[in-house]
UniProtKB/TrEMBL annotation:
It catalyses: aldehydo-N-acetyl-D-mannosamine 6-phosphate + phosphoenolpyruvate + H2O = N-acetylneuraminate 9-phosphate + phosphate. This is N-acetylneuraminate-9-phosphate synthase. The gene is nans. Keywords: Transferase. Gene3D superfamilies: Aldolase class I, Antifreeze-like/N-acetylneuraminic acid synthase C-terminal domain. SMART domains: SAF. Residues 294-353 form the AFP-like domain. One of its GO terms (biological process) is carbohydrate biosynthetic process. It holds the Pfam family SAF. InterPro entries: AFP_Neu5c_C_sf, Aldolase_TIM, Antifreeze_III, PseI-like, PseI/NeuA/B-like_N, SAF, SAF_AFP_Neu5Ac, SAF_PseI/NeuA/NeuB.
Length: 359
């Protein structure tokens, strides 16, 4: 069984625990605090476990020329990339206000720390866990400092190789055993042929002592549900209030009704996964009683006859006789009373027969 650990207070992941659903608000709030609160409420009402944002200290994440780069995209909120990012970046006080609101309505709150200073702030904010975005998964100094803080970690794997993920595992594991990997492909929206859900199984095999999850950027919910059926213990999906809003992520995000359907469908899948023990279930008894078949006489069989297979067949019969799987065991047995053609073959009609399976 994969390692399980407490990702948030009172909420474990891994093992047989329910899949943990992260509603990634990111920067789909358009830089508006009230919209951000509406999105937290939407995540809560849809049944998600956690509302997640992104936090950056821009001068630590970008160099000066990157911030001064002209940004003429239709999704731009400013003339330069720095202006654009500043519009979307909440202050420390605004983050505290969002965290307070999430606590009031009863949903976990965290963010991806997009640089080391952002991680320091989130640590001070006492978020339940750190999320490592794919762009920082190979940022080893950043990962080391984060792991040393001791908070659980959720690490996406977009743009990375299996070799890199092995190195991440080897670095993080001795410092902080409470982390998981998410299979992820970093493009928006994500085409089905680039999802590669089989990586989930590869991760499960390569890293058997940590939970494995899925971060999806595709449209719709079917692929994420398939990831859960393959054993994803954490899923993350971008969310929005309106896919037509300005911003690169909205098109690959889930609107409220889709997020609600995703969560309810995940819970349905978890219920359907059930047990690995294959047996006749109580719910099947009515069908078995009505349609379950028995061994019956194919011809009239006199008392003292030694049975051959040609004398027997299988039908739905009254009363119930030997189950079909015992027909070969009846061959060579002696009949101690006459059995009419089409009559059920029952235990009392066979000499010295010890049934291995009761009907």
């Amino acid at each position: 069984m994969p390692l399980e650990f407490e990702l948030c207070p009172g909420r474990k992941i891994g093992g047989e625990n329910p899949c943990f659903v992260i509603a990634e608000i990111g920067q789909n709030h358009q830089g508006d605090l009230e919209i951000a609160k509406k999105m937290i409420r939407m995540a809560k009402d849809s049944g998600a476990d956690c509302a997640k944002f992104q936090k950056s200290a821009l001068e630590y994440k970008f160099n000066k020329k990157a911030l001064e780069r002209p940004y003429n995209s239709p999704h731009s909120w400013g003339k330069t990339y720095g202006d654009h990012k500043r519009h979307l970046e909440f202050s420390h006080d605004q983050f505290r206000e969002l965290q307070k609101y999430a606590k009031e309505i009863g949903i976990y709150f965290t963010a991806s720390g997009m640089d080391e200073m952002a991680v320091e702030f989130l640590h001070e904010l006492e978020v339940p866990f750190f999320k490592v975005g794919s762009g920082d998964t190979n940022n080893f100094p950043y990962l080391k400092k984060m792991a040393q803080k001791g908070r659980p970690m959720v690490i996406s794997s977009g743009m990375q190789s299996l070799d890199t993920m092995r190195r991440v595992y080897e670095m993080v594991k001795p410092l902080n055993p409470n982390f998981c990997f998410l299979q992820c492909t970093s493009t928006y929206p994500l085409l089905p042929e680039d999802v590669n859900l089989r990586v989930i199984k590869e991760f499960q095999s390569t890293f058997p002592d940590i939970p494995i999850g899925y971060s999806g950027h595709e449209t719709g919910i079917a692929i994420t549900l398939a990831a859960v059926a393959m054993g994803a213990k954490v899923v993350e999906r971008h969310v929005t209030l309106d896919k037509t809003w300005k911003g690169n992520d909205h098109q690959a995000s889930l609107e409220p009704n889709e997020l609600a359907e995703l969560v309810s469908s995940i819970r349905l899948i978890e219920k359907a996964m059930g047990s690995s023990v294959k047996r006749l279930l109580p719910c099947e008894l009515d069908c078995h009683k009505k349609l379950g078949k028995s061994v019956v006489a194919n011809v009239k069989i006199p008392a003292g006859t030694v049975l051959t297979l040609s004398m027997l067949t299988v039908k739905v019969a009254e009363p119930r006789g030997f189950p079909p799987e015992e027909i070969y065991d009846l061959e060579g047995k002696t009949v101690k009373r006459e059995i009419e053609e089409d009559e059920s073959v029952t235990e009392e009609a066979i000499e010295n027969y010890n049934t291995r399976t009761k009907c």
